[in-house]
Amino acid sequence: IGSVTHMALDSVKGDSWIDIVDDIPQLLRHLQDIDKLPVIVFCFDRNGCEYIVELVTEFLEEEEAKKRLATLGVRSQLERFEKKVEKGKKRLERERKREEKMKSTRKRSEEDIQEDSQKAGIVEFDEFDPRRCLELGCTFVNRSRVLSSQECRTLRSKSLRKSQQWVLRGLQRGIGCHHSGMNSKDKRVVERLFRQRTIQVVAATGTLALGIHMPCRTVVFAGDSPWLDELQYRQMSGRAGRRGFDSIGNVIFHGVTRRKISHLLTSDVPHLKANLTMSFTNVLRLIVYLNLSEDKELARRQTAMILNRSMMCAEKPEMQFVVQHFLLLAMDYLQREGLIDRAGSPVGLAGLITHLFYTDPANFALLSCFRQGVFHRILARQGVSCSAQSSQLPVRVLEEMMLVVSHLFNRLFVHPFVKKRHDASRRRTGSAIVLPSLPPPIADAFATYNAGLYSAVDTYLRVARTNLVDTHCKLPLSHFGMEDASHCIILLMMTTTHRYHSNQVG
Fold first, then answer.
1. pLDDT digits 0-9 by tens, 456-489
2. What residues contact 307, with CB distance under 8 A and at least 6 apart?
3. What is the pLDDT of residues 86-132, one digit of tens each?
4. How would DSSP label each residue in 236-287?
5. pTM tops 0.70
6. Which helix (H) or strand (E) holds 207?
7. Which three-class secondary structure state does DSSP give residue 4?
């Protein structure tokens, strides 16, 4: 198991991330000298990550330029190369003028041009060694994992075809950037090259803390942030010293106060709670996934893992019993609503319900409106044909339909005092601050939906009660078990959330 060492660097120039990251190039060079690469530099600002890449790239380019100028042999080689290119250009120009004078009608092919270039001594850029910067050490590219020329050209033509120049310059020097605002292809290239240990420096935000396999030897926290809490620190520092890659990991705090460092090191990890929401919509989404997935066996395993190994059941094993009965209740309700058939396959408007999963339970209320013909009633009451185009609908019809949709989706409930104050105000505005009440026919449709939901739950509980009998814990007269009551209450609370509240002020 890899251990982690901590170092704190407080010698920064100022409080902003620009002042903090100005010393990052020197820090990275020091880590390279003591063999502590690869490294991930975490900065909670996108601009800060990009600034780090550009700053380190310019630092390495300036360092290489100084070394080349200091090397007389390299300077003379460059001068000879420039003279050779200039001499070849003049020779080609003389030959071109000679051909124009001869007024030759022959078209020159690409082979002829290449032959002339070879005669003139001109060398194509692709023939240069892409590892030239490795000779001077002005790079963070791993010498043992350098890509070949063919791999570089393939990567440039396919994955990095639309990349910005600062991204390409950074990758050529072994530095990558990773944040949620970048192009997805650029991020995948950075992840792949870093896992291959080709590039050894990545500047990233907190998006790299979870769900991406990128082990390293050192983690640097460049500056403080309100988002840097105990959980984020544990996730980010866990990148260093990963088991099977490095025996020791290093964590460096650069620009973080000692008080914050002490708090991060001594605080416990926040308690993780289950986030599995049991709802009719999620059950329908699992059914759709099972039926439409190309790999049926994989879909079955993943669905079983979600239902049988959820954190909710791990924390409270008795909840597994409730989840099983909720699944049976959901299957019964979905079949009543005509969303699945007897074989469990999705039918009807199942696609619409799953598409609007984030509006639950308004998506089921909308389905009830369709089945009860609410929108047809609105058109009939205004004397409009159902086949009329939307551009031909009267304003009163559109306003009433908008009222129904507004009550269904994205409502915000206000306090009665706010409504009373709004009614007392005589200021006129073009916006409806408080939604008017629904017309009685439409309100009755929502009441019918709620009644149908309660009827389905009540019927299932009465039928399932025979399977919830606990013989060792019963009341003496009613013979109703206490375990039965707790399970029924939990199941009823889970299904009550699907009731649509239409009697509150929106």
1. 888 877 777 666 545 445 555 655 554 444 455 4
2. 286, 323, 327
3. 777 777 776 666 666 665 544 444 445 444 444 433 333 333 244 55
4. HHTTBT-TTT-SEEEEEEES--HHHHHHHHHSPPPPP-------HHHHHHHH
5. no
6. none
7. strand
